[in-house]
Amino acid sequence: MGIVMKGADVANAMKEELLQRVAGLKEKGVSPCLAILRVGARPDDLAYERGAKKRMELLGIDCRTVELPRDIRQEIFEEKLKELNEDGRVHGILLFRPLPGHLNEEAAKRIVDPGKDMDGMCPANVAKVFAGDDTGYAPCTAEAVIELLDHYKIPLSGKRVVVVGRSMVVGRPLSMLLLKRHATVTICHTRTRDLPGVCREAEILVAAAGKARMITQDMVGEQAVVADVGINVDEEGNMWGDVDFETVQEQASHISPVPRGVGSITTSVLAKHVVQAAERQTDNE
Ligand SMILES: Nc1nc(=O)c2c([nH]1)NC[C@@H]1CN(c3ccc(C(=O)N[C@@H](CCC(=O)O)C(=O)O)cc3)C=[N+]21
């Protein structure tokens, strides 16, 4: 039976350092502040927002939400985003995605100040993640997987890692973070031939495809480490990962659950980014 890697243990370990850094900022008269920009009220945005608010409060980070109506016009939306860019009290911005269909997300990515872009969506931050330059910000969920593996002392250097999923929020940036740590990375997707065979070769398997319980026991090698990034909510409101937990746990050496796994570390990484941004913006004054 694999060891269950619990998100709360990782978040707790991160908490001590973050509290100290927040205290350091406050001694200099700086109150780190996150602004959340939400358009409409999608349930998964609200779930993340609740978690983020709770985590920021626990760490003494200010958090304010700017809520815009679902049917807002592109020009007004862009104005609001620019206001947050220019607001000196705001150190970091989190824009919930995906945006409603009528809004231009590509335009938004180009407007957000790279120094305030907490979820690594703008081209400058994407480029830095790909270049292995850690003066930028990676998407929080991708970085949460690294925090999870590091906390449980899973070595990455030289390891065969298979990432299932190629999204710009998880699969691709995470692959670059793993590569920086000298893992041998294979990225799988819907057109991968013999997905089970490729997955079975993994020493570390990351499921980030967004398909409930698609990773089954026959796809996991003996004593593999399995990290589940999936957040799939069914009609009854139950949350499922991309991994069929019960059967895969028998096979794996370590496995992260859903909920209470990677998803619950994401808000701690978000907090870390806000602290980093506040420190960097203060040092540059
Ligand atoms: N730019 C952007 N980045 C995101 O990362 C992003 C987003 N937009 N829009 C919304 C979705 C949704 N999302 C969640 C992440 C964690 C939990 C989470 O904390 N889950 C807990 C359970 C939370 C609970 O208690 O309900 C867990 O996995 O254990 C939920 C939802 C991030 N998203």
From TrEMBL:
GO BP of this protein: L-histidine biosynthetic process; methionine biosynthetic process; purine nucleotide biosynthetic process; tetrahydrofolate interconversion
CDD domains: NAD_bind_m-THF_DH_Cyclohyd (cd01080)
EC nos: 1.5.1.5, 3.5.4.9
Catalytic activity, reaction form: (6R)-5,10-methenyltetrahydrofolate + H2O = (6R)-10-formyltetrahydrofolate + H(+); (6R)-5,10-methylene-5,6,7,8-tetrahydrofolate + NADP(+) = (6R)-5,10-methenyltetrahydrofolate + NADPH
Coiled-coil parts of chain: none
Domain annotation Tetrahydrofolate dehydrogenase/cyclohydrolase NAD(P)-binding: ranges: 139-281
Binding site for NADP(+): 165-167, 231
Listed pathway(s): One-carbon metabolism; tetrahydrofolate interconversion
GO molecular function per UniProt: methenyltetrahydrofolate cyclohydrolase activity; methylenetetrahydrofolate dehydrogenase (NADP+) activity
Pfam short name (any one): THF_DHG_CYH_C
Residues annotated as domain Tetrahydrofolate dehydrogenase/cyclohydrolase catalytic: 5-119
Recorded GO CC terms: cytosol
Keyword terms of this UniProt record: Amino-acid biosynthesis, Histidine biosynthesis, Hydrolase, Methionine biosynthesis, Multifunctional enzyme, NADP, One-carbon metabolism, Oxidoreductase, Purine biosynthesis
PANTHER family: C-1-TETRAHYDROFOLATE SYNTHASE, CYTOPLASMIC, C-1-TETRAHYDROFOLATE SYNTHASE, CYTOPLASMIC-RELATED
Similarity comment: Belongs to the tetrahydrofolate dehydrogenase/cyclohydrolase family.
Subunit structure: Homodimer.
Protein task: Catalyzes the oxidation of 5,10-methylenetetrahydrofolate to 5,10-methenyltetrahydrofolate and then the hydrolysis of 5,10-methenyltetrahydrofolate to 10-formyltetrahydrofolate.
Protein name: Bifunctional protein FolD
Lineage: Bacteria, Bacillati, Bacillota, Clostridia, Lachnospirales
Gene: folD
